[in-house]
Structures are given as C-alpha cells and as structure tokens.
Amino acid sequence: MKTDNIDLIQEARKKTIPNIGWIFLVFLIYLFISGILGLIPIIGGIIQLIIAGSLQLGMVMYIAQLYRGTGKDLGVFFNGFRSIGKALLIYIVKYGYFLLSIMIIGIAAYAFIVQSPENYTIIYSFILANRIYLTLLAIAIILLPGIYLLLLLFPCYYVLMDKPDLSVREVIRESKKLMKGNIGKLLGMLFLFLIVISATAFFTFLFMMITTFILIITIPFFLLVLFVLSMSMMAFYEDLRKASETTQNGDDYITEHLQ
Fold first, then answer.
1. Which domain covers residue 110, as residue numbers?
2. Is 11 within the bounds of a domain?
3. pLDDT tens for residues 194-241?
4. Is the dihedral of CA 64, 235, 55, 165 positive or negative?
5. pTM
6. 55 vs 47: CA distance, rounded Å
C-alpha cells in the first residue's frame, strides 16, 4: 500500500535534520563544479552538458545513502561518473524536449526578426493583440508535454542507481512502470513544496520592506525546504519501489500456485 505524501515528507524531514550538514556540503560541491565549468567559455558549457546527468545521479546516490542509513561517504557523490554515458543519455531524454523547443523558438525568432527588422513591428503588434492566446498556446505546446515527460521519467536516476546493469531503454521502461498511476501523486507532493516556497517568498518580500533582518531567517529556511524536498523525492521513490516489489511478489505467488 502506498504511503500518503504528508507521511513521506515527515519521514524525509526526520532523516534530513540529523544529516543537514552533509547535505549542505554535497550541494556546495555540486554548485562548485557547475560554477567553475560555467566560467569557462564554450568548452565549459559543453562539459557541463556532458556531466550534468552524472552530477544528478551522484546527488541521488548520496541522498539515498543518507536516507537508507548506509553511510555518509562523500565519495559516493562521484560514483555517478561511473555511468556517465547512461546518465547523459537519460539527461538528454528527460530534458531534450525543453532544450529543443527553446532552440527552435530562438532560431525562428532570429530568422524572423534579426534577419528581417521590418517584421519587428508586425510581430510585436500581433503578439500584443493576441498575448493571452499565444501564452496559453506556448504553455500547451512547450511546457505541458515537457512537464509530463519529467514526471514520467522522474525515477530514472534512482532506478539506474539501484540497477546499474540495466540499459537506458530498460531504465526508462522501469521508470514508466513505477510511475504508472503515480504521476498525480508526485505532482501533488511537488505542489505542497511549491506552496511552502511561494508563501515564504511572499512573506520575505513583504517583511524586507521593513527590515532585511528577515533574510537571516528565510535563507536557511529555503535551504532546509530544498534539502527536505531532495529527501522527499528519495522517500517517494522508495515508496514506489516497495509497492512495486510487493505487487510483483504477489503476482509471482499467484502464478506459482496456479501452475
């Protein structure tokens, strides 16, 4: 039986608090590597793309060992590079839709406006007159399918972590199997965190007009929410995995006794 999202978040919070220093440290390492590469023109961006999947896989591995209580070895974070090829392919499949959509829009805008400046007034007038419809159309065409794909493939790096011998296709198939009937549940969990983050941001902005002292409270709170979110994603995956194993064992038992 699947666990309620609130219970999963509470469980994640309990596991985050005693490990908050370690989580903060691995997040710093993640940001440091990404930041250093970001300072290198062109080549740095290419390397960032190549290792992005490995960094995400390494983060998942490190959070997993904290959640499962198997250790606090920072070296686990770098184990993601052992599957750099698979991690990269999964990253491209998960985020390629967004990247491709942005590229197409950028190329189209460049060709229409930059190459033909006289069209700028025409397109601006058209967008201004139809901005609401165009915004909804953009959301429908670009965001919604991409968001669905991200939710559907959410467990990919977790599956690769637990089953490193699987091919990318098998990892994606296993992820889809785990997420069958659970996309709404994952969306609900993310929405809960969105509410907390939005409310915190609103009150931070409100009180900053009075005093900047509020940042001393809200910045650590934001980080805590981020860490609990990471641990909650791990808890969500564990719940999916256990539910899937229970179902599989039940099916095997029935098959065995029917033969």
1. 18-252
2. no
3. 998 888 888 887 777 677 777 787 888 888 999 999 999 999 999 999
4. positive
5. 0.83
6. 12
